[in-house]
Amino acid sequence: MEFSQAKNKFIQSWGALGSQWGINKTMAQIHAFLMISPESVSMEEIMDELKISRGNASMNLRSLIDWGIVYKDFKQGERKEFFYAEKDLDELAIKISRERTKREIKPALKVLKEVSAIDANATEKEKHFKTQTCALYNFVSKADNAIEKITEYNDNWLSKLLKRLLT
Amino acid sequence: MEFSQAKNKFIQSWGALGSQWGINKTMAQIHAFLMISPESVSMEEIMDELKISRGNASMNLRSLIDWGIVYKDFKQGERKEFFYAEKDLDELAIKISRERTKREIKPALKVLKEVSAIDANATEKEKHFKTQTCALYNFVSKADNAIEKITEYNDNWLSKLLKRLLT
DNA sequence: TTAAACTTTCAAAAAATATTGAAAGTTTAT
DNA sequence: ATAAACTTTCAATATTTTTTGAAAGTTTAA
């Protein structure tokens, strides 16, 4: 396979994968493109490579920056902004995990805590509801703690985890 | 909070959470409803509770069954089908993890293997592409193995994991 | 201050995704 | 074999999400 083919395949696949994870396709594609760019890249270049509009590029770059996985680079003597991706994969995974925890796990826990607090004396249905939502709360809490622990020492956490699991 | 309020809140929140994960809202809501139903439930009841059409119910129930997290129940003397959810959370998480691995991680690994195989002698860009995609391949492989290991012994894997991490 | 070189915003348009509902299909009872 | 009681399918429709592009906003240089 040629480089340009491989590059396209990588960007397209990353975009498709992103969609399945509730991340918009363009955002994932921009990230893919930045991941494989050795130098930081201007908005113009991104628009050109991915064939997207300026507005689209601007908004998705902003999202990536909000997620903390893309940074701005101000080059000496250049007026325009350049962008580069967090390339350390341990760091990338930690940032994504922290962000998703904040956006999804914490709110889910809040809801579970609330709804599991009903007093369930009356019917079988109510008792079962309470049992299940309490169990879910405990499970999600544990998962949350586990993720926290795993990524606590950011340096090489995945290798460390694997080692511990294999002993 | 009253039971019926709590029930609604739970179903709605679970649906919203599903959307963020690339799972369709109705599918997540049906799952939520089945999770809190002590008895298995007919399609009619699901349509009624969630205010959805027969077609929608049918298709999403099928998806849930394909994922292996909802089962059919044929009741004595009843012609219609009833449905119930996998309620053991360890088992549920394992099934979801296996399914997503199969659908997403394996294909991603395949692409990464392919594109990282280019020979990158010419430019800086090509070298960097190779470096990055190889690194990604390794990282994703490790993550895949870790998940495999963690869920290997399905019984109470999350608690076991937490214990190991805390020592 | 002005204007050039940029970036951001957001209403409108396009694209993607989910939902409906009725026709077609299936199963079971008689 | 017929019909009643169901479920599935899928073209049409509705909804949601993404994308565009031009106007408004910002920054820098002269």
From TrEMBL, chains A, B:
One of its GO terms (biological process) is regulation of DNA-templated transcription. The keyword Transcription regulation applies. CDD domains: HTH_ARSR. Keywords: DNA-binding, Transcription, Transcription regulation. GO terms for molecular function: DNA binding. It comes from the Bacteria. InterPro entries: ArsR-like_HTH, HTH-GbsR_regulator, MJ1563, WH-like_DNA-bd_sf, WH_DNA-bd_sf. Belongs to the GbsR family. This is HTH-type transcriptional regulator. It comes from Pustulibacterium marinum. The lineage of its organism: Bacteria, Pseudomonadati, Bacteroidota, Flavobacteriia, Flavobacteriales.
